[in-house]
User: Fold this.
Amino acid sequence: MKKYADLIKRSVAYNMLLGDVKKNSLSHAYLLLSEDRLSLDLLAELFLQAAVGGEDNAFRLQAVEAGTLADIISLPESGDKVTVKDINFLTETAYITPTELKKKFYVINYGETMNEASQNKLLKTLEEPPGVSVIIIKAAGAEKLLPTVKSRCRKVELAPYTETELKRELSKYYPDDEKLFLAVNAGRGSLQRAVDFVSQPQNIKLLKLAEEILTQLDKSGGIAEFAFKLYDYRDSLSDIIDFIELILMSSVKINCGAASAGDFPYDVAAVARRYPTNAALKETEVLTRARKRLALNGNATAVIDELLFSILEVRAKWK
Assistant:
């Protein structure tokens, strides 16, 4: 069985799609939504396997997984951006009778990258759907899609996983308790983020650096020291911000009596002493602001000093 398939098959999203298959009532178009790219890809693959009879046909199951069925067309042909050329190909071939299956399936990856011209071109096919084809649009979000495109698709959104769901699934593959705990918590409901965490040893160093900032940054003179350390990891500043927030929210659980220090593989007790609940929550506002600045200009160096100063400023007010 495909790795992590059990996690996907327990989701509401998959069972909605499976219901359509079992009722033999496939929509002409689906919009599958999730920022969790790994789960989104698995959801689409498992849906296709069920739709073409793969669950009961080992050959078709393997063919879907290998991408060798002629009637399952993945777009774009290369890269991670959908082009007008890709949509032209779809609209020009969607009405042609399938060769192997009862229906053809067009899988549009990175649907959020379609420009307005591509979407308007696709819209004509969505408005007059070919009975022989099913269009599956996979997107990280629906914000950049035209309302007319969204309204003509069956929308299926994959909800974030609970910590319990992620832990149950990841424990099958990652027996290291410390890494497992951190992956589940750092994942914040995303299988992709959780798997990325355990597969990148550097993340442990980034987490430790986040812990040092929260437990050792006391005076403005310390900003230069930590700015120098953060500069070495400037390409991973977004991850460090996430880890700072993870530790702060763990400290909130400690201060509220919802958890004990032994539940965490870092010195959350020291952070909880330094940051009362209100201070920790205020610090999350600082982190949100830093994320926005980083997203706007992409210059980690410009964000680092302000981030450290703001963290120190908030702590000073609640000291």
Summary: The two ends are 53 Å apart (CA to CA). The first strand starts at residue 29 and ends at 33.
